[in-house]
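Note to self: keep these together.
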Amino acid sequence: MKKMGTLRLKHEFYKKHRGDKIWRVHFIKRYGMHAVSFDKKRIL
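Structure:
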């Protein structure tokens, strides 16, 4: 898994379910990229 912190892509955080502990990351105008975050600062 690559750390995505160095890329400057527009993104937004969301959770699928209210009780989830991880944030999923949606990259705007990008397809096929899957990333998560635990603290909304560091994207993995």
